[in-house]
Amino acid sequence: MENSAVQKKKILSGIKPSGDLTLGSYLGAIKNWVELSDEYDCFYMMADMHAITVRQTPADLRRRTLSQLAQYIACGLDPKKNTMFIQSHVSAHAELSWVLNCYTMFGELSRMTQFKDKSAKNATNINAGLFTYPVLMASDILVYQADLVPVGEDQKQHVELTRDIANRFNGVYGDTFTIPEPFIPKTGARIMSLQEPQNKMSKSEQDNGGCVCLLDKPEAIMKAFKRAVTDSDTCVRFDTKNKPGISNLMQIYSVITNKSFEQIENEFASRGYGDFKTAVGEAVVELLRPVREQTEKLIADKAYLESVYKEGAERAAYVANKTLRKVYKRVGFVAK
Ligand code: ATP
Ligand code: LTN
Q: What does the alpha-carbon distance between residue 74 and residue 23 come to, in Å, rounded to a whole number?
């Protein structure tokens, strides 16, 4: 692995185990992780440290972290080819984060959309971690010298901030960090809630039926799609402004089937919304069926999962500590 990995460009991405993985995280991020995993040396983590910026029940966080790893594998990420690990197992992330905090401006963090959204939603717990969240994310990325960061649209601003922090640090100390690029899919970068198509489908807001999870059973998935909010028109046409619900369903159908919007419009030209919703639901059911079945098997094999995340953390720490040592030296810390 080491030898062939040396020449390859690197990818780092992660998802916080703050809820069950959704169709949004799959189409916006994980699907691309799988597609890019042959070409790049990939590091994919469960961002448990990011998850605690919002209050979590400890037992649930533990269970979801392991389940998330099982789902990564079930989605097609081969642990032999990809380094998969738990963020809190590699201490270099937190250590680099402290240093980079000192190279990130208060004003920059105040402008982050996710911080503004999350503080509005968690008004009684606007903690410092929620504010400095993007600095930890920058550390996740920069500590691996990642070239590419495959994420959904909502994370683009954080990757841009990461680039600014890296450029600032490089400007002061000379080339230290690789400047990463975000990788955002053309279709599927922002899957919307099935109930409120003006809002992003989000795993921490699963109560209103607008969210489909990777482990949902076929009946639940079909029900969610049949109840999906559309509009009073009858025509399947892509128009995010006037037809956000239908356009969202078209995006989902398009990424799964590889059909263009035009092909989808033709396919459903003389059919009603009911038929279209059923077709999208069925496509999602078939996409997720193997993921659910495979995850159930993997979750039962605790020893295997443990071997994957332990090996992953070891490989990750090897790469991450190299960067950390370089950074400590550059800022003037005395070597141990
Ligand atoms: P939370 O609700 O806890 O903030 P989330 O559902 O927004 O979580 P994240 O863990 O923030 O999910 O995101 C995981 C990855 O999936 C990120 O790369 C993010 O950009 C992407 N992603 C999440 N939701 C969507 C979505 N609805 N459409 C496209 N991509 C998404
Ligand atoms: N902030 C991301 C999750 C995340 C991440 C990362 C993504 C944490 N660290 C590093 C890419 C690279 C989110 O909220 N989805």
A: 14
